Amino acid sequence: MRLGEHPILNFSRGRKVTIYFEGKQIEAYEGETIAAALHAAGIRVLNYSRVEGRPRGLFCAIGKCSSCLMTVNGVPNVRTCITLVEDGMVIERGQGELTKDKEIPKFGKARKVEGDIIVIGGGPAGLMAAIGASDAGAKVVLIDENHMLGGQLVKQTHKFFGKREQFAGVRGIKIAKILEEEVRKRGIEVFLETSAVGIFQEGDEKLIVAIRKNEELIEFRGRAVIVATGAMEKSVPFENNDLPGVYGAGAIQTLMNTYGVKPGERALIVGAGNVGLILAYQLLQADVEVKAIVEAMPKIGGYFVHAAKVRRLGIPILTRHTILRAEGRERVERAAVAQIDENWKPIPGTEKVFDVDLIAIAVGLRPSIELLHQAGCQIRYVPELGGHVAVRDEWMETTVRGIFVAGDSAGIEEATTAMLEGRIAGIAAALRLGIADESWVREIEKAQKELEEFRSGPFGQHVVEGIKKLLGVRA
């Protein structure tokens, strides 16, 4: 169902349209994705696995997994979580296969777009990179595969910490609008619903091959590229963890806070880091009951202020607990959890079963480095940064000259650090190309100092250690 009133958000929906799901008329609104419209209509099973025929549902909601692939207007393997509805659209379950009566999409001759610096990703890091590079005198082109700018910011209703210059006291949804306005004000060329599929070297230029709206092939050319593709949800192994109703935390935030769709009635959250804690009171804002938060570690991983707020709201936080299984046939109906011992084994006799239709997985993110890997950047596994990341220097340049990285794709941190890294990468790219003069080095040093201050607390020490490993390899 769609949300009406919300204590913070006002949902402005577009024109009402009709889509057809396996012959059934579904009410939808322009500006929302296929997956969001289907969820609003109570449809959770989006697909079935090919071999076992197990039901599949939305998981990440940002186009980075295969759980929402469906056949749309006869075209198989469409990512319905980032594809907008259109009036008369026909949607079918199954990833589908191309047959003689289904033509392969013809892209025709590639359109060419040129700039000094191409920024891939329109989240906090990409937006700040584009702004920084533009301020330093570069012609910037920004591309993002979503239909709106802002990345993770567009779903964050809480107020940020930090300094005033880092948007302290401002909600994430507002920060997204502020940064978009800054990008538009500078005349930066923006391409939405555009997925980069490869980065190549061609002479002195970087060639980025991208597909826009699954219809148009575009070649973006620039002398430098900034990759700010963010991250994707991690999961945990437990029985039936593939049932519809098991979501990454970000997908739940997208449904609730971006599209105004209630994701369920009763929730269990796995993970008591900042994301899990913040998600708890965001669910309450959407009138979803939160049964509990389970955390395998002996103590809560998020900020005390978030944990205190959750406890004041009466939500139990069960440390030293893990999820054992999800129960249900076509979707989640219950969740079983148990206490664990020092060896991370479930303790017999401690099992609890919660009557829930929603399990939120908030156990962290992993950097999206696929483009960086494909482009030949040196990759290293650094657990402190969330997994595999590109080796880079203090100016965010990778081992491939002219390719920079920023934000969660450089290592999992906060949106604030993503914005600071983005500014460093944008200005550094302009300096490397000889567009900006040496006075801009002071701007990089200022951002680096702010990063150092932000990471100086106990939650930033592991990140500092991870970055040291990367800089050591680079040297």
From TrEMBL:
Query: Where does the 2Fe-2S ferredoxin-type domain lie?
Result: 15-97
UniProt keywords, alphabetically: Oxidoreductase
Write down the Pfam families for this protein, in alphabetical order.
Fer2_4, Pyr_redox_2
Q: Which organism is it from?
A: Pyrococcus yayanosii (strain CH1 / JCM 16557)
What Gene Ontology terms describe what this protein does at the molecular function level?
Answer: 2 iron, 2 sulfur cluster binding; oxidoreductase activity
This protein's name: Sarcosine oxidase, subunit alpha
Q: Which InterPro entries match?
A: 2Fe-2S-bd_N, 2Fe-2S_ferredoxin-like_sf, 2Fe-2S_ferredoxin-type, 2Fe2S_fd_BS, FAD/NAD-bd_sf, FAD/NAD-binding_dom, Metab_Enz_Cyan_OpOx_G3PDH
